[in-house]
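Quick one - first record:
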Amino acid sequence: MPELTLFDTEGNQVGEVGLNQDIFDIEINEHVVHEAVTAQLAAKRAGTASTKTRGEVRGGGRKPWRQKGTGRARHGSIRSPIWVGGGTTFGPQPRDYSKDIPKKVKKLAVKSALTAKVRDGELTVVDGFDFDKPKTKQMVKVLEVLDAKDKKVLVITDEKDDDLYKSARNIPDVKVLLGSAVNVYDVLDNEQIIITEEAIKKVEEVLDK
């Protein structure tokens, strides 16, 4: 069972934390991680690009000229795709880019990402945050003592904490996330993860289901 040092918000070592080896110490599966990240990014795509076909462009209801006898090419509508102002052939239409992947694959990807963070020394465990009111300066100080200042940081807590969220939201590259919502992209997209002791239990609970 891997163990990490437990810190308080002043940077003092206050103990050790044992981690579930089935989550934080597994064989990293890079292919699964790639699949999960790709699916997560694809789900964020809006897919709202839309062009009008010849049936949707306004006008063109009357045949521009008679079929024969004019010396000009035959045309049935001025909104044909070959006309200026006409419809678009095979243009983009609203669509859903999301990809379905099995829940087990998603969980394995998160476990692999967390394992990588532990092995790279990029996961810090704290005993909790005791903000009695929103204060950005206090959050900046916490990042400094935990050697996470000027880094892209993901803070994971076990339950919603408005004071913590408001203290961190004005700091560039700092994101607060619930343990129940942990995902592979956010884990990999940040240089340092600061997680509370209780949030570890929440993450283990979610990934063990």
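second record:
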Amino acid sequence: MTEYNGTIASVDKAFDTLEYLRENGKSSLSTIATDLGFTKSTAHRHLKTLESREYVVSDDGSYRLSLRFLDFGEFTRRRHTEYQLIREKVEALAEQTDERVQFMVEEHGRAVYVFQQSGQHAVEADTYPGKRVPIHASAAGLAILSKVGSDAVDEIVSRHGLVRLTPKTIADRETLDEELHKARERGYSINDQGVIEGLRAIGAPVTGPNDEVIGGLSISGPLNRMEGERFENDLPSLLLGVTNELELNIAYQ
């Protein structure tokens, strides 16, 4: 097995294959080999190995990801005992506000959706549990960054940069620092169309009994409903109350 940069080349190729299928969906052997720059024999060996381990399904001469990844994802969520408490609050908040509510965590410098629930009037968005987004672009991500300390923020920005998803996404370090300072003072963060144009969100960090950051909870909605007294006072007050209750329940569960 060839190693480079401290990694094993064959393992990297296997994950390249999985990530390709994740991005492109059902694909033929020749298409996968061509697009990844593999020989057909190399692509075939990796696909057959993944198929034998039930991570890939062969279907009419093409390959697709199997549902085994659903098992891994749900197992990962269930191993955190505090997540069940958080799931209940996400569902209750969505019902109470009629908006979209999400809980996200930081992993490898990105924000990952763990739970998401839509209220009756929530706007549809291309987000789902497991999706990863630039952490600086979302309200929950900004809430997390407001609690992790400047060294951790430096490391994340150095690793991933400040990717611009919309014209409103924070794209320079000075603006990011200003937003994080405001979030610390208020206790909650604001994302003004940083992920999706026309969508605003507020987010608050969820911390554990030793002040460790568990994740960020956020409420998002369209501009016409996320303004005025509701956006500036009602929703922040509700969100901060819920996160405070969550943290008490997590500490004493």
